[in-house]
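Q: Given only this backbone (388 positions), what sequence would you predict?
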């Protein structure tokens, strides 16, 4: 069963702005919120679907992948948004909407869950593939560095046998309240930085951070048709959260190596192929390279340098569509630098023959040249006569 189009789910166009997407989601979230539709499982599913659509379309990187590769592209990077229940949705978007707006929209549906632990940091790694791998798609193993939970302290940051102490400044709340007249402002505790506890005896391995650098090997599926600059997202493969929140993501930046024969122009490929003078004049059948090996093509008699022969759908695949670009064979006449004596003799005879039977292009050139010379000397003669 095909998955629904996220733009249709939110009721926006494909060129909708972030503000349009956010506005559409808020309206639908209010409409399908479980508190407003008690016992309606269909409303809950619609609520989750709208949240999944918003989670993708509100993120520039995810939206770019979705626009180019669809749901398959999101799945190849670890999947799109996956919400087990409505509480996951509240937690995922609390930083986007803020507590006050969530309270207005959902009637305090978060249930006073308090400050959510910060997610781990995103990381980036580079991957170079060749053109054939980019054309067919490939699974590659990548190696990158990220910070993992310290095994010595179990991620607490405290020396084994000790534990963090409650922060005296905020009383373990992680936030402090400042009152000014009628207004009260909550801010992150400057002493514990929102953790609610401070480490008095740090772990010697992680130095109180709870994380240590590790080398990780992972496999990633590269979809067919990627190009240099494509970023693939591996969900949850970034750094761990020191506060126990969600792990960050790993973004794999693709570079496609230059090919010795093919130059890429989006989904089309261009290949320059040399031919001889005789082949161009008389026509010939030659072999040219393609992504699948070699293929024979016919060179028409009278071919000129720069002429293009196109092989349809022999280029790069177009993502999300069952077709490919074209392969353009651009021929040029190669003039040999060294000639054998018999070659020279034949070319002299050819030159003599061409002198007796001038080609139309050459005749046209020499005709124009004669007219130019005649006009030049005529104007010069008239000028001399007037001066005399």
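A: Predicted residues:
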């Amino acid at each position: 069963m095909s998955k629904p189009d996220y733009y249709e789910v939110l009721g926006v166009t494909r060129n909708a702005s972030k503000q349009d997407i956010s506005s559409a989601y808020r309206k639908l979230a209010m409409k399908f919120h479980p508190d407003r539709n008690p016992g309606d499982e269909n409303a809950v599913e619609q609520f989750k679907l709208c949240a999944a659509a918003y989670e993708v379309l509100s993120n520039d990187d995810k939206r770019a992948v979705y626009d180019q590769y669809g749901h398959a592209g999101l799945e190849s990077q670890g999947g799109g948004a996956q919400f087990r229940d409505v509480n996951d949705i509240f937690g995922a978007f609390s930083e986007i909407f803020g507590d006050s707006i969530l309270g207005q929209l959902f009637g305090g549906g978060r249930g006073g869950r308090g400050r959510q632990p910060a997610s781990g940091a995103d990381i980036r790694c580079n991957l170079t593939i060749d053109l054939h791998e980019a054309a067919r798609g490939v699974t590659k193993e990548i190696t990158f560095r990220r910070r993992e939970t310290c095994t010595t302290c179990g991620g607490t940051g405290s020396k084994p046998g000790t534990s963090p102490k409650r922060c005296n400044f905020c009383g373990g709340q992680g936030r402090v309240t400042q009152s000014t007249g009628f207004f009260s402002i909550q801010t992150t505790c400057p002493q514990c930085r929102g953790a609610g506890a401070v480490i008095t005896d740090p772990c010697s391995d992680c130095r109180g951070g709870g994380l240590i650098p590790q080398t990780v090997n992972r496999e990633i599926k590269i979809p067919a048709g990627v190009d240099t600059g494509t970023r693939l997202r591996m969900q949850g493969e970034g750094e761990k959260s020191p506060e126990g929140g969600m792990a960050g993501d790993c973004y794999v930046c693709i570079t496609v190596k230059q090919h010795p024969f093919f130059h890429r122009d989006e989904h089309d490929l261009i290949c320059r192929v040399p031919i001889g003078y005789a082949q161009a004049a008389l026509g010939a059948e030659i072999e040219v390279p393609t992504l699948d090996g070699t293929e024979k093509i016919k060179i028409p008699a009278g071919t000129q340098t720069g002429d293009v022969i196109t092989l349809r759908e022999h280029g790069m695949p177009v993502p999300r569509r069952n077709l490919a670009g074209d392969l353009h064979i651009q021929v040029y006449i190669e003039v040999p630098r060294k000639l054998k004596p018999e070659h020279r003799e034949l070319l002299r005879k050819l030159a003599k023959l061409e002198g007796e039977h001038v080609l139309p292009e050459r005749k046209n050139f020499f005709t124009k040249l004669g007219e130019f010379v005649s006009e030049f000397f005529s104007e010069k003669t008239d000028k001399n006569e007037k001066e005399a």
